[in-house]
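Why do we care about 3D structure at all? Because function follows from shape, and shape follows, mostly, from sequence. That is the central idea of this module. The next example makes it concrete: a single protein chain, its amino acid sequence, and then its structure expressed as tokens.
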Amino acid sequence: MHTLSTTLVFAAAMAVAPVAASSHEAPPQAAAAATATAPDPVQALQRMGAYMGTLETFEVTSESSLDLVMADDQRIDLDGVTTYKVRRPDAFVIDNRTDRKQRRFYFDGRRFTVYAPGRGFYASAEAPGTIHQILDTAYDQYGIALPLEDLFHWGDPARLPKDFQSAEYIGPAMVGGVQADQFAFRQEEIDWQIWIQQGDRPLPLKIVIIDKTDPTRPEFSARLSWNTNPRFDASTFAFSPASADTSIAFHKPAGASQ
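And the structure:
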């Protein structure tokens, strides 16, 4: 996956402590029963992915925070809001706003466009195919990884995360007033957590990730709000530049595929 790169927050660590304490103090029979009924982390991911794969259209708002360390060791937070409008298998528009810039990404099944509204520049290229194909093309040819593009990958069982060094069920939790189950995973390059909604709509509600390849261990977190039955028309995914906008070419990084 191209986008996972963050860490556990202190509040998440605090949430683990009561779970560990209560299980330690519980009678052996109660502890055994709790273990027997605890969701399996990998099966929970698979169930989430299977459900997400049934969504023909969806709209998601992600409120995110990226924790970075500057050259002088000052740690800063960069917040952003990203809105996803998706129609499978071949259309999306993503609006990404941070404190410093705004980008929109359009795909209508024929063209892929990146637009910078504040600067009035856009780059567009023919890109027939599916959402999965354009994600690969954008990354391989232009070095572009879309914001939290795992939301698209998780609907495909073949693209779910795997090769875990560990996978743990942390316990039940509330996210935005919704009951969820919290899981923690470790992989070679990242540690990450995910909160999955309980019940018959197992949607990801929160994600926290740490990039272990960076010595400063930057942290990314996102809370997700879902609309699983939105109404879109063709104009939703069509890019129409303003008269003052300027077309520019995509930059192809060294070593990019042709």
